[in-house]
Specification:
The chain is of the alpha/beta class and 318 residues long. The protein is built from ten helices and ten strands. It has helices spanning 11-16, 19-29, 63-69, 107-124, 148-160, 175-185, 208-224, 237-241, 265-290, 303-317, and strands at residues 42-51, 73-82, 84-90, 128-134, 138-141, 191-196, 228-235, 250-253, 260-263, 293-298. The strands form three sheets. It has a six-stranded mixed β-sheet with strand order 5-4-3-6-7-10, sandwiched between helices. Strands 1-2 form a two-stranded antiparallel sheet. Strand 3, helix 4 (107-124) and strand 4 form a beta-alpha-beta unit. Helix 2 packs across helix 4, helix 4 (107-124) runs antiparallel to helix 5 (148-160) and helix 7 (208-224) runs parallel beside helix 9 (265-290).
Amino acid sequence: MSHPEAFITAEDLVRFGHLELLARKVVEGYITGLHKSPYHGFSVEFAEHRAYNPGDPIRFLDWKVLARTDKLFIKKFEEETNLRCRLVLDISGSMYYPFQGDLAVTKYAFSALAAASLAELLAQQRDAVGLTLVDDQIRYHGPARSSRTHLRQVFTELEKRLNPGSTQALQTTALAQHLHEVAENIPARSMVILFSDLMAGLSQELSLKQALRPLLDALGHLVFRKHEVIVFHVVDASTEFYLQFENRPYEFEDAESGQKIRLNPVEVQREYQALTEEFESLMRVECTQLGIDFHPADIRGGLHQVLHRFMLRRQMMF
């Protein structure tokens, strides 16, 4: 697969702004270079046969039945519609990390550009895109439509939250609860793409599996409702997974509760890494068992790497 050497990255979002323009550049520069679409266009479900009537389109004839019975039957379909995709973005306080430092992009900014790029691709295929933004509440839930006017509204809602106010920085997460609501309130057999750091409900009082159970149950609810689910686990891996800081005391603050702790990260680095590796492994295994497509997304790796792996995997599936 070929792609431009100067591929656009999430850092460009901060430098240049204008989410719609950047999304188009991503699609034009990379995604449309794929040999086939990673999505599956029209969604049809066979329901039954009926006798052929003069004037019926012959493309719906069941040729296998004709060969066996020498009779003409038309295939009837329960539904024939373009793909409906629901983009769900976690906009809680932890998604606005890192707040400052050498990386000029947050987890939310990275997610917004990735989501906008996928929305642009879907729109070019005339597929319908809907957007849901959640923290402790559902802050936005728009319909799934395929028009350019609607797509601009999606970009606008994503762009509004690139530079959150001080109140947004401490918003907590109720992701599992809202995924249950999404599962029930969107048409069956939609594609649901979730962007989140998946930090909802983690607690020292519970084992990792117990803490993740509400989230996994919510993802399972989406699968039960026959939605195709894709999860992008968005993290700043070097600091959030590997705790790579200088060997000196730091004061760490919880982005959602405001709780503070002072420690030297080097002293707890090994134990912390073991826990994050267990977390990632558990999520991957549980998602695989549910039939969910799970994608780690390191914001320091750049948008190109994340979309590249995603597209290759989708090509192998279809």
